[in-house]
Write a structure and sequence with these properties.
With 209 residues, the protein is an alpha/beta fold. 39% of the residues lie in helices and 12% in strands.
Length: 209
């Protein structure tokens, strides 16, 4: 299948690199739409290898690129990392560059569109825009990795988010291809501890004096 990978100027370029790497490993075609700020962040954060995993990277000013049309046979799109400005423009339908236009196409063609914000905290504008985008059919997957699998490297930590992205894109059938599935655990018995009395705490403070 063919997928579009949007990359903006938000920090977290490693998420884009790992997403592209796994898409290629799974045999998919990757079209990368990288904004000028996105290219700057990719270089600054040492993630130039991103471009080793993409099949093409059209200029985001080129509205004659294939992915600008709904008749092109792309299976979906993810914008990762996605800046809040980009989320606002997608939600507003501005289509002021190829990345925003490609996202608009996915929405109108009812194809998966995923945005991966890496921002904290959110203000009300951010929340409103993410709500608008969700109502329009988009999927918001924050760059919030999980830790219950005890990841040992940054790459393993990032992949917990990438697996979620690829599952919602429909790029793979089983997240276990990247991360171990959650099987549940037996909750250990909690040892009850007595709460110190007021008199005991008073004695402790008196001794310290």
């Amino acid at each position: 299948m063919r997928f579009i990978l949007g990359v903006t100027g938000a920090s977290g370029a490693i998420y884009a690199t790992r997403t592209a790497m796994h898409l290629k490993r799974l045999g998919h075609h990757v079209t990368a739409l990288v904004t000028p700020p996105g290219r700057g962040v990719v270089a600054y954060e040492g993630q130039d290898e991103l471009f080793d995993y993409v099949d093409e990277a059209p200029d985001v000013k080129n509205f004659f690129a294939e992915c600008a049309s709904g008749s092109a046979d792309y299976a979906g799109m993810v914008v990762v990392p996605c800046s809040m400005g980009t989320i606002g423009r997608i939600a507003g339908g501005t289509s002021d560059n190829l990345l925003i236009r490609a996202a608009d196409v996915c929405l109108k063609e009812r194809r998966p569109l995923i945005v991966v914000p890496r921002e904290t905290p959110y203000n009300l504008i951010h929340l409103d825009n993410m709500t608008r985008l969700t109502r329009q059919g988009g999927i918001v997957i924050p760059a919030s990795p999980h830790f219950y699998d005890h990841p040992k490297t940054i790459e393993e930590l990032v992949d917990t988010v990438v697996a979620k992205i690829l599952m919602h894109l429909g790029a793979m059938r089983d997240a276990a291809d990247i991360v171990k599935p959650w099987k549940g655990i037996s909750i250990p018995k909690v040892v009850k501890q007595k709460t110190p009395s007021v008199k005991h705490l008073a004695k402790v403070r008196a001794k310290k004096k």
